[in-house]
Amino acid sequence: MAKRSLFSRLFGNDDNSITPQNATEFTVLNGNKAVFTKYNGDFKNDTDVRACVDAIARNGAKMHPKHIRNFKGKFENLKDNLYSLIAKQPNELQNAYQFYYQVISNLELYNDSFIYMQRDKDLKITGLYPLDFSEGKLYEYQKKIWIKFKFGRSKEKFVPYDSCIHLTRFISDSGITGGSTTPIIKTLSMKHILDEGIINAIKTTQSIKGVIKSTKAMLKPEDVKKMRDQFVEDFINNSDKSGIGGLDATSEFSPVKIEPTTASDSQVKSIDNKILSYFGVNEAIVQSKYSEDEWNAFYESVLEPIGLQMSLEFTNKIFTPTEKHFGNEIVFESNRLQYVSNNTKVNLLRYANNIMTINELREIFNLAPRDDGDVIMQDLNHIDSSIANDYQVGNGNKNDDEKEGEDDERKRN
Description:
Layout: H1 6-11, E1 24-25, E2 35-37, H2 47-60, E3 64-71, E4 74-78, H3 81-87, H4 96-110, E5 112-119, E6 125-130, E7 135-141, E8 144-151, E9 155-160, E10 164-168, H5 182-206, E11 210-214, H6 221-235, E12 251-255, H7 265-279, H8 283-286, H9 292-318, H10 321-325, E13 328-333, H11 342-351, H12 358-364, H13 388-392, H14 400-412
Antiparallel strand pairs: 1-7, 2-7, 3-4, 3-13, 5-6, 5-10, 7-8, 8-9, 11-12
Helix pairs in contact: 2-4, 2-7, 5-7
């Protein structure tokens, strides 16, 4: 049975896509060509980098996408096939959480994140796939912008740029590509030197350093070497691991105290802060010990911009101009109130019952929705403005004839 790769499932059986001869590389306003590359180093496996990226991706992946239509004052929250695709299973290999985790991780690691939109013959979207490519170049072909992706060493694909959802971070001078990863690589290079220094210092302090002196006069060089090797065998390569050796009266060991210099705490802290600042997080967020205010700051400065960019890019790439004209859009929402303190939740429950539905309030307390919960509970202090005057004068329960009679009475007087 023939095996099919993920490449062929996405792009068909043509493994190598040839760039058309009349396609020219796309040049931006500053005269440069837009090229997307991924750093081939191992910085994504650095513990601190991975912790920062994970903190952003795992929280960002919890944002909930919605397909809404808002046209001529009529708002609809659609539960169609597109909603199922973006909110539950974007492709056959990933659920929605895994998908958005990878998309956001790529964005934070490489400053560019691409999603390929797979469509059927009727141009209906059938799958969304995060692309793990080695290089991408923009071309102009048939009056459109295209992008040629390289996957690994041999596979390439030439696709329309508008077939890909493209997220960026630290936007470069071209205005299209994400920024370079050079700053974080330089910081990690310094961190690597500090880490190596600490490791070497530990190794140095754990080994025996000293000089063996013999009371015998004028030993031959080969005898001195033999005496040293015997000491090493007894003390360092001791097979019984006891760490105890013996010397006779003709030998004397004088230890040499070595105190290797390592980076100071302030230097290590400075490097750690550079990494945290690069990703826009702090230790409280990374270690999940944040306060209500710290979470709000993290949401507004890191997660909300990602959600806004995804909302705009998903909307622009998924829908046609006509569909957007009729109010179709994709929005990414996050229930920030789930992370506030219990006191704030209780106060919200007390005062917000007239603006939030029962199910929205239950969601804040991580409770399951009720079948009859999509209604707003309205107390007597919050009434419809169209009946406010009647309510204030006590006419709320009077019929039209009674009200008309009272109006006539007021006119006669």
